[in-house]
Write a structure and sequence with these properties.
Radius of gyration: 20 Å
Strand content: 15-25%
Number of helices: 10
Largest sheet: 7 strands, mixed
Order of helices and strands: HHHEEHEHHEHEEEHEHEEEH
Number of strands: 11
Length: 300
């Protein structure tokens, strides 16, 4: 398959519009439409559906988007690696993987702490889902992955070493003008009539489990392609959402986070290859001196 078409599809999913994607890619709208249609014929399933404000991926399209995005990221890394060899840059960058919330939350801050101590180093960040990143550590693609044990959890594999970082309490994010904005902690029963949006199965499972323990149900009527899309739906008043507590410092200004009574939690974990002599000694330094800093996580 042509990765140019994959890139067009991922761009359409991200911006939610064929015309906006065409402008960003410097293509005509008809060319982007033909690319998507050809991809659908090749896969034998509809990937996009229209709605009032543009287009969005179908369930099959969302599955393909996630894998396509990972493939495109890896292809870009491959091109950069070859160019580094061509340009005589021999040192392998520190390859860090992180879930989307951790990549937007604590990992950038942790890297800044590492750079203060180690000086200028080359590093790369690959966001992904926990199980996917865990597999990349085992495969040797990543030096370290910062993940969680949110559903469906992580399989035990002797080829990877894990270290518990602490507990991350989930919070609910509301539009800035919501009646409960600024008040908390709030009980899940008080939100039983709200519409919820989710962007991944793990967060949805935590929300359903938390609501079930309180004897109510959560109406997850909307689905978002990713975390920014999820927050956009909250900001515009279409829904509320459950998000990781570590993300609160990186929230946009038109939403607000409120604590939950007896909140659901997930464990923060970092994983590195077991027994391997790491080519860059900063892997453990990054983990021990920045990720494990006291106060960054609860429950340490």
């Amino acid at each position: 398959m042509d990765l140019t078409v994959w890139r067009a599809f991922v761009t359409v999913c991200r911006v939610g519009s064929l015309s906006a994607a065409a402008a960003e890619l410097n293509h005509t709208q008809s060319a982007v439409s033909r690319q998507i249609a050809g991809l659908e014929r090749q896969l034998g399933v509809p990937l996009m559906e229209r709605h009032a404000r543009g287009v969005r991926p179908t369930p099959a399209g969302e599955v393909f988007r996630r894998h396509a995005l990972a493939t495109l990221n890896e292809a870009d890394r491959a091109v950069r690696a070859v160019r580094d060899v061509r340009d005589g840059v021999g040192d392998r960058p520190l390859a860090i993987g992180a879930t989307p919330s951790l990549a937007a939350g604590i990992v950038p801050e942790a890297v800044r702490g590492l750079l203060r101590q180690a000086g200028s180093i080359r590093w790369s960040l690959l966001p992904g889902l926990s199980a996917q990143l865990h597999g990349r550590v085992i495969a040797g693609d990543l030096d370290i992955a910062v993940v969680t044990d949110a559903p469906p959890g992580l399989a035990v594999d002797p080829r990877a070493e894990r270290r518990f970082l602490g507990l991350d309490e989930m919070v609910v994010v509301l539009p800035a003008g919501h009646p409960r904005a600024g008040y908390g902690p709030v009980r899940i029963e008080a939100l039983a009539d709200e519409t919820w949006v989710e962007d991944n199965d793990g967060s949805a499972a935590l929300l359903r489990q938390h609501a079930a323990r309180a004897g109510v149900s959560a109406r997850i009527d909307l689905a978002a392609a990713d975390l920014p899309g999820k927050l956009a739906l909250v900001a515009t008043g279409h829904a509320i959402a459950l998000i990781p507590g570590v993300l609160t410092s990186a929230l946009r200004a038109d939403v607000t986070a409120v604590g939950l009574a007896d909140p659901p939690t997930r464990r923060g974990i970092y994983t590195i290859p077991q027994g391997r002599q790491h080519g860059w000694c900063g892997v453990r330094a990054f983990a021990v001196t920045t990720l494990e800093r006291p106060g960054r996580w609860r429950g340490r």
